[in-house]
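---------- Forwarded message ----------

FYI, see the Peptide chain release factor 2 record below. Original note from H. follows.
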Amino acid sequence: MQERSKLESSFAAIRKIETELADNVELAELAEMDDDAELVDAAADALTKTKSAAAAAELIALMSGEADANNCFVEIHPGAGGTEAQDWAEMVLRMYMRWANSRGMKTELLEAQDGDGAGIKSATLRIKGENAFGWMKTESGVHRLVRISPYDSSARRHTSFASVWVFPEIDDTIEIDIDESDCRVDTYRASGAGGQHINKTDSAVRITHEPSGIVVQCQSDRSQHKNRSQAWDMLRARLYEEELRKREEEAQSLADSKTDIGWGHQIRSYVLQPYQMVKDLRTGVETSDTSGVLDGKLDDFMAAALSARVGVDSEP
């Protein structure tokens, strides 16, 4: 029902745009015939607004996948490089939190492990909001940073990598069967961001699904029971995302981007020195506004990546 409603809404938006386009083109033609400069300007403004509405409708249409409307989980891990890479992973985490908040979405840090001196060794973020997974699903992959390292006394330029893995939160209407005998459940003392208040007890939970190698962990709550329940939900979501991924034969292999955090697998480069540029290596979209991007201005990159995936998500 939800997918049907979304499709009907998209068709209604398209029909409205078609009508407005025809009306505005006719208005522009009449204005030119009458040599009415003021009316020509009004028609041009109306056509510009129609163009913006068409772009917005296109984005909605691109988010018609079966899980696109759902909330999502975002896992972030640094590549090799110690403190430098761990600091970059924390910057990526902040970037996505800023992006989500700018769109009125809510974020919840479910798990974070402090880095060695700075940054993070891992983090799992939940983003709640309309089409959260639809927006975020193209962000999975390796993100590359080039900058003068603040941790290098010689002020040399460093290249760092961080991997991002995005998967949808699923509800009770989607059945995912998990054989608990295939899973190993570990508890440990929470630490790092989100866990300072519960360090005295083994409240954090880690579940390893041995057949797939998928590992999820949660330490956001004081209660081990609640963390365990959340971890099982995350595991179900990861297994569901894995099934969705298998259907996307034409999409870039997300498994490759997760297992090799380095050269050849990056989806986007963030260069802060010797010049400033962020470039998406899949779509060619780029900007010199590096500060804006790191503060969450990601819509242009996401929209272009979604457009590039037309036809992939709609495959049976």
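H. also flagged this: Residues 194-199, 249-257, 311-316 have pLDDT under 50 and may be disordered.
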